[in-house]
Amino acid sequence: MGKRIELCVKGLAVAVVMAVSSAMAFAQEERREVMLETSLGNVRIALYNETPAHRDNFLRLVESGFYNGIAFHRVIYGFMIQAGDPATRDSTVVAPQVELKKIPAEIHFPQLFHKRGCLAAAREGDNVNPERMSSASQFYIVYGKRHDDAMLDRAQQQLDKNTQSTVVLPPEVREEYKRIGGTPHLDGQYTVFGEVLEGLDVVRDIDWVPTDDQDRPVDAVRIIRAYILK
Q1: Distance (Å, whole) CA 140 – CA 117
Q2: Model-level pTM?
Q3: Dist. CA 130–CA 117, nearest whole Å
Q4: Residue 29, helix vs strand vs coil
């Protein structure tokens, strides 16, 4: 029995070392970057290596010119800005011929969470999409708000309800929501695959534009051009 326990402990130690080594490898690998030139300013984004399918799909669409002329069609004050619907493309911009297909979820919570400035994939609801597969092209950038303990406790209650108590905000994540803000009630349910490096003020300005009762900006805000930086 003692030998069996010793082997289990050794096996667990090896697994932990492998997990840490894998995380370090992702962190050390250079991240790809994309620039979104919008009608309100530029937003520079880094894509996470921990979510390779989403990273590669986003790069493919950017390279094809898919996002050029696309509007931010859903903007909710104090929450997020959403784009990527090809139906919102400026009619003067030629649509590229590119295949669009849903992406399997790559949810890595609590490592990747909905902090202010995160880039995440939109998706259909759990009732029709229980696997939480991501939209082929639509994404959102979180602006959110700073939270205090009472707000975080309410967010945890909502998470408990939506995830059957499987998603718990750890202390270090709660501290980040207090420090920089975000939208914690989405954690563990959507794929976060990047973050804003520069231009968070532009995200704020888009988040603050007047909208109609469908959350569409009254005056269209568009991605004029998206291109790969590295």
Answers
A1: 10
A2: 0.87
A3: 26
A4: coil
